[in-house]
Structure formats: C-alpha cells, structure tokens
C-alpha cells in the first residue's frame, strides 16, 4: 500500500498532548448519531490479517473494546477533528493492537510495561506475514512505526508537549470507553449502537483486573503513573458506560 503523504496518512501530524485542551471548545452543534454501519472496518489484506491476529490473541472483552475504540474514535474524528486525515486502516490497526501487551501470555513474557512491549510486538506483527498472505498484508515501515508509536503512548496522558494525531485519537477513544470522559464528543445513540454490536462483557472489571495484575507483576509499570488507586476507581466509576456493562 503506497501513501501520498505518510505524515498525514499514517497519523504523524503533531497535535497537543493535552486531550483536555483539544476537547475544549466543542462545536455548538451536538455530535451526530453515527451507526456502526456508517463506520465500517477496513477490508484491505493487511486489515483482515491483523483483525484475525487480534481476534485469535485477545480475550473477547478486550477484542470488543478494541472495536468499540475504533468506532468511537472515528465518530470523534468526524465530529471534532475532520482535519486529521489519517487513514481508517491505520487507525484500525492501532485499535486492534493497542492492548496486545495485556494478554496473560504477554504480561508474563517481559518485564516491559504492557504498552511498550505492545509497541515492539506491533512493529513485528505489522511488518511480517507469511508468504501465503502476500506483500499486500505487510504494513509499510512508516505505517508500522506510526501505529507502534500510538500503541506505546496510548496511556501517556501528558498535559504538555505534542503527540501524533493517531496517538491522540487512540487516547481520546480509549479514555472515552474506559472512563466515560468527554461524553459530549459522541452521540448517546452511537454509544448504544456500538455497545450493542460489541458488548462490554463486564469490561470495566476486566480491565481493572488486568491493570492490577500488571502492577502486581511489575511495580514499576507505566500504568502506575495514572494512579494505582485513582485510575481503577475512574474505570469502575464509569457511569456513562455502566448501563452497557
């Protein structure tokens, strides 16, 4: 797959790290309802391969979370950041792989924090496929690096500096699904439709258990920077998504 501009197509455009700054001054009109059918997943050979890979590796609640993040993120981008022209395929890859480091196998395979190991795994998976799958199922180097950068930084909730547009969109959508923050960016009917297609399956409890397990195994984990008690409390206190748990 060739790109006319890898900076914009693969989400490298630099934007503020502060999601609060970006989410401020929302348009006067409310977010429109966007059904899942209006936000289809990509069907390129690469997208199909990574979708199958993610589905085979991730527990169902995590896989469903990844797809909710995709649909919520596209809804946010269309409403609030239409100038971000990263491809849907690139964002889809980031969504599918952002929690690849949280599997039980991967948590125990490394002393790296799950996002960092996930970024390394992302580079590996995106740039290597079987000969039967063909070159169309391999990500270009720039695309693979853009996705890996976003995966590594998706819990890097800084208030200063810059992040890639891909990384920021992934952050906004994961924060939205995990804690219910920035509820005004997505129409309530969109939340209902996405949650119906990709059930939460007690996602809040599942994710908190994973975070607690990582911190038990790795007291130095990057997840601790979000607050060892505060972050799980925010997740479990997600009233926006509680009706769909």
TrEMBL record:
It comes from the Eukaryota. SMART domains: HDc (SM00471). SUPFAM superfamilies: HD-domain/PDEase-like (SSF109604). Residues 58-188 form the HD/PDEase domain. Pfam families: HD (PF01966). InterPro entries: Cyanamide_hydratase_HD, HD/PDEase_dom, HD_domain. PANTHER family: CYANAMIDE HYDRATASE DDI2-RELATED (PTHR35569:SF1). This is HD/PDEase domain-containing protein.
């Amino acid at each position: 797959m060739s790109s006319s501009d890898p900076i914009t197509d693969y989400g490298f455009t630099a934007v503020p790290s502060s999601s609060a700054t970006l989410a401020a001054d929302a348009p006067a009109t409310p977010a429109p309802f966007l059904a899942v059918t209006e936000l289809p997943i990509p069907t390129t050979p690469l997208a199909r391969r990574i979708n199958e890979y993610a589905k085979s590796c991730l527990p169902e609640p995590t896989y469903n979370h990844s797809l909710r993040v995709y649909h919520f993120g596209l809804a946010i981008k269309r409403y609030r950041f239409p100038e971000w022209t990263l491809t849907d395929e690139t964002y889809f890859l980031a969504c599918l792989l952002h929690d690849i480091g949280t599997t039980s196998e991967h948590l125990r395979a490394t002393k790296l924090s799950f996002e960092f190991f996930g970024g390394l795994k992302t580079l590996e998976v995106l740039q290597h496929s079987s000969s039967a799958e063909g070159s169309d199922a391999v990500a270009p180097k720039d695309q693979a690096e853009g996705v890996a950068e976003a995966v590594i930084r998706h819990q890097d909730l800084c208030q200063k500096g810059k992040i890639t547009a891909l990384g920021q969109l992934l952050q906004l959508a994961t924060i939205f699904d995990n804690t219910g923050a920035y509820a005004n960016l997505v129409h309530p009917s969109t939340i209902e439709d996405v949650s119906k297609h990709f059930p939460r399956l007690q996602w809040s409890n599942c994710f908190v258990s994973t975070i607690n397990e990582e911190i038990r195994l790795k007291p130095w984990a990057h997840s601790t920077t979000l607050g060892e008690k505060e972050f799980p409390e925010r997740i479990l206190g997600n009233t926006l998504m509680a009706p769909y748990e």
